[in-house]
Amino acid sequence: MDIEFNKNEDSLKQLVFQLKSKLKKVYLGGGEKRIAKEHEKGKLTARERIDYLIDEGSEFLEVGAFAGEGMYPEVGGCPSGGVVTGIGYIKGRQCVIVANDATVKAGAWFPITAKKNLRAQEISIENKLPIVYLVDSAGVFLPMQNEIFPDKEHFGRMFRNNAVMSSMGIVQIAAIMGSCVAGGAYLPIMSDEALIVEGTGSVFLGGSYLVKSAIGETIDNETLGGATTHCEISGVTDYKCKDDKEALDHIRTIFDKLGENPKAGFSRVEPAAPKLDEQEIYGILPADRAKPYDMMDIIHRLVDNSEFEPYKELYGQSLICGLGRIDGWAVGIVANQRKIVKSKKGEMQMGGVIYSDSADKAARFIMNCNQKKIPLVFLQDVSGFMVGSKAEHGGIIKDGAKMVNAMANSVVPKFTIIVGNSYGAGNYAMCGKAYDPRLIYSWPTAQLAVMSGAAAAKTLLQIQVSALKAKGEEITPEAEQELLERITAKYNEELSPYYAAARLWVDGIIDPLETRKVISMGIEAANHAPIEKPYNVGVIQT
């Protein structure tokens, strides 16, 4: 192996080590003291509940592990958004699981908690997957109620979704394993079946303090809305369980008897590992993001048997399009080529840039995949579309619009992996979060923004210097350099994949070696939802 390969490998492995260290901290939720307090009450933590609930030895694909990362420092933060969500297997059935983390502010709902809960429901709806709610929440985090309560994308949307999901035939099971108050009380009770744990579970519209202040009645929470009350007096809940484990066992029993639903019918054969060593991805991806590399070297280490059928291989070479299989599933891959290529017309094309010919090719390929019912995988390392008079006169906007149209209207499921850069309209054309990928994950090498840090910083510097000059103020070269460094530092922080993951612009950050698992579990989930509408691109730019 050459020196460059070893340097790249060291750099990416260091980023993966940092990722795993950050995840370990996230998995502690509110910290070890808070975990001990839950155990003292005879309760399992959110993550322990999920581990017990899912099939032994099965995979759990976490969604939004870094939600809330670095946010709300004024109130001590909100690790993982105070809720654990993801896709798991119960009695061999794939499902979405949502578990409130009572170690984080007693499971209270922050603005990011609302966004994460709605994302979990979206995954359930899009893929027609059953969903399990493990409820243990003190309700809205009151100091931020104005950011959580009344709007369309706030918490009320969850209960609207409960109703809509029920009408769609999506199975919803809820276990009340701790507090469940106020509007939040509707979530388990609008589910198909609700279980409650004796002694720790309680559900009511208003707790004992509110009841006392509102109507003067003195009553304790257990009598007001505990397991005995709701299983024997009100009939609000369906099953009374003596502890967390019994409740989780009962959910497994329910899943054991679920009927089968129609499938989408995506092609799958016996899975095979790539023939080329996946570990070599670490050394192939340059540590210096400005350096070119051949994206085909990455693709051959992601697809089964390292077999890939390129589409229009010699045309529009700045985008790679083609067919392969990942863990047995047939996929259509659209990936940014990062090496410099030369067109037959003699034009040198920069890596990571989308040109007219490549956008034209990708649009046609995406339409073909929809015609053949093949899920799409986008591998992003994109700087944006080509600019300048030659590109504009050649109709780059028209060809870009055609690609965006073909991709946005896709009826086959789309999956996005951000390998490196994800800038500007390139993020859009390559199926960024705004274009409904079923799952979108990034590698630790990813950067998301409207443009690169260097380009943005220089642009912002020019604007600020011009503003100062307009006021008659001159700026020294030293002051200008200091300003540039300050702007660059702020912008670079916002480019970080952790910044994106904190805000759920991506579903998570993964080790590159987890890419095949994410795509495979994603297509398996999507296979539960038959395609119901015909592919129609409307008026397309020709």
UniProtKB/TrEMBL annotation:
Pfam family for this entry, one: Carboxyl_trans
Protein name per UniProt: Acyl-CoA carboxylase subunit beta
GO cellular component entries: methylcrotonoyl-CoA carboxylase complex
Domain CoA carboxyltransferase N-terminal, chain residue ranges per copy: 12-270
GO BP annotations, alphabetical order: L-leucine catabolic process
Matching Gene3D superfamilies: 2-enoyl-CoA Hydratase, Chain A, domain 1 (3.90.226.10)
Domain CoA carboxyltransferase C-terminal: 273-533
Highest taxon above the source species: Bacteria
PROSITE patterns: COA_CT_CTER, COA_CT_NTER
GO molecular function, one term: methylcrotonoyl-CoA carboxylase activity
